[in-house]
């Protein structure tokens, strides 16, 4: 039977739903805390430019983790990756909900971001691995809706919950969704590793340093002069890391080629 005549199995639908729920919830929390910034500055006695890192840092961590998924999907079963992501999200979520200080809240957000950075590429991996060719377009469109709808709802969700209950309930109320996602994933995600390959740790580190330095420089530009050392130093560090990052993958490939 050709791939275009295949039907999407119930297992595939439910496995995709598991990844979509985890991805949707993770992306929802990206923007849900934005409306709580003024309150959090008072609760934790920190400045507004410090509080904004619970969103900025979250997005940075998501971006960095996404860069590792191509390797992880070759090394581990998709079910294992989903399980790890679900556990990480629960741990980070509980840390945020119970956080007595800003560093604990920030740490919880970064752990949540790891889960989101894993679940979103996993959702697309399931689509391209298990969906027939003639349905891939429609399914990727639905996956795109998940990614675009979640941040649009985030501020409304966060504002409604924080105004009617507490900002901590933003985290407690999404826990049941993660439990459902975990249960579905443990039963219906069945995709084995898809190959072999090495992981370029150096390039990942340089990419992380580049992104963090540039974002940090921009965040300081709102408080200090553009030509001040507080802005220029992280910007220059970012440029140096970027300059080292661009040729690094080619150098490593050449080294491996010469050794073989």
UniProtKB/TrEMBL annotation:
What protein is this chain from?
A: Major facilitator superfamily (MFS) profile domain-containing protein
Keyword Transmembrane found: yes
Quote one Gene Ontology molecular function term: transmembrane transporter activity
Q: Which GO terms describe its cellular component?
A: plasma membrane
The record ties this protein, via InterPro entries, to: MFS (IPR011701), MFS_dom (IPR020846), MFS_trans_sf (IPR036259)
Major facilitator superfamily (MFS) profile domain span: 15-260
Principal location listed in the UniProt entry: membrane
Please name the PANTHER family in this protein's record.
MAJOR FACILITATOR SUPERFAMILY MULTIDRUG TRANSPORTER MFSC
Subcellular location per the Swiss-Prot or TrEMBL entry: Cell membrane
Membrane-crossing segments per the record: 53-73, 80-104, 110-128, 140-157, 169-189, 201-219, 231-252
Q: Which organism is it from?
A: Lentilactobacillus kefiri (Lactobacillus kefiri)
Record carries keyword Transport: yes
Question: What are the protein's UniProt keywords?
Answer: Membrane, Transmembrane, Transmembrane helix, Transport
Identify its membrane topology class.
Answer: Multi-pass membrane protein
